[in-house]
Predict the 3D structure of the following.
Amino acid sequence: MWLYFLKRLGLAVIVVLIVIAVLFVMTYAIPGDPARVALGPRASEELVAEFRERIGLDRPILVQMGNFYLSLFQGDLGRDAISGEPVLRILLSQFPDTLYLVLGAVIVAVVPGILLGIMAARHRGSLLDRVTSVISVSVMSVPAFVIAIYLLLVFSIQLGWFPAIGAGEGFWDKLHRLVLPSLALGLAWIGYVARILRASILEEMNESHVRTARAFGLPENRIMYDYVLRIAILPTITVLGIGIGHMLSGAVFAEIVFARPGIGKLVFDAIISRNYPLVTGAVLLTTVFFVFVNLLADLLIAWLDPRVRHDLAG
Amino acid sequence: MTLPAEPDVTPPRPLKKPRAKGSFARLVSDPLGALGLILIAITVLGACFAFLSPWEPNALNPLDRFQGPSAAHWLGTDNLGRDLLTRVLYGAQIALTLSIGATAVALVIGVAAGLIAGYGPRWLDNLLLLIFDALKSVPTVMLALVLVTITGPSVWAVLLVVVIINAPAYGRMARTQTLAVRNAEFIDAERALGASGAWIAIRHVLPNILGPILIVAAMDIPVVVGIEAGMSFLGLGVRPPTPSWGSILFDGFSYIRESPWPVIAGGLPIIITTLGFTFLGEALRDTFDPKIAGRK
């Protein structure tokens, strides 16, 4: 188990290191001199030279890369090119709003997804199963930003049931404003959860321990909830692990359409204003979160599933 | 995006290669497949016959702005008085060309890398696997945003994003399939006859691994349509005034309180096309993949 944990952690660390290297290279790949880009076209040559020296652009590239890694590991993501505030502080101030959004989307995905998955598996081959399958496929394929705009059009603009912009003040107002963006972001994942759960329940139903339970005359409901679902739910955790990462980066659309504050909106505005330290910081934070959630999902499965635990120990 | 494979719950069946005509008949007899084909046909025909429209896609007509559907403008007009149906039809040309083209490029690069990984030396295999995994671990939208920071908004940026997102998945599939056939007897026989590695890989391994990857690629087309529209919506893809579905949607979104029609017109073709390709992809997979066919 420990060996598996270390291996998985090692891969996650390697991925993060590669992403940091790519982000470092990115600052060089951007057309133009980074100092010139940061200071603007009207800055004098002396000012540019002083800036280059101050942020270390005049040193050898490998030294710069080493310093880049070093400062990141000390939690220093640089300073915002426009306001001069530490990037980390700006990101952390916006992160909670994005997390609430992702949490809302997870609830939207999980509750109907699990219900649909169980229903489809219990009535395999029936009209209900077929309809569930078509609904799952349909919501999976339509891009989240199209759903977001249509929800905005119908429920905010036409019906006026939900506010169109902002994150709100106070618990109930925040919750009210969270409904449509969460729905837009989570809707597609209802399909993923329902499909994977249906397939996984059907596989589990064929297992001998379920047949034995049935032979003992246990009621179907008890077999489903006490025996089948406990194991069948595990792949759903993997899907959610991947889903949370994708929702986090997909939040940019929901945040733009519903004019909410958050990491996605922040990084989009930073790109438009060519505020590169903020772009680099936001991408790094999102990627680390993405890798971490996937790692957590894998480890959770290894911990929850006695079979996986046993295989890993052996 | 890569999700864990759904477990196979079908008892093994004897493999039977479907005949081309029978397969098509089966595809059409599946209601989902038939509906998918109809939806795709609507998009393709719209793209092909866009020139029949009496309006120019970029012709401004400020006096007619924010018109609802009428005999003259079937889907209404946008904030600059441009005919929305015409723009949507020309947008279909861009969406289809770009999504099929970008998927094809990603497929060629991914399969080539997968063949090299599966058939080449061990160290190269490990290196390519690490690259595939690292690329898979980066959130898609963030990756697109970073790339556009470097390249600037353009059609090429969309192409690059699609290749980087999709090629690793095809590469991984091609590698797994290559490993499965590389020690088959007919490959050993070729090797004994003195055929070179590259010849064996292209002439014998490739045809054996391509089928399932092509189905996955077909199922990725709606995702690519979404990526193109999404990037254009954010102003990072196709540049205005070229009528991309994403930019039509963004124009409509900016004036959503003035008129709902631009948003409806921009979103509908995206929904029709993504649903069409997804339904067809599902039906294709059920028809051609004997492991999954018959599960329902």
Summary: Chain A touches chain B through 65 residues (CB under 8 Å). Residues 2-73 of chain A form one domain.
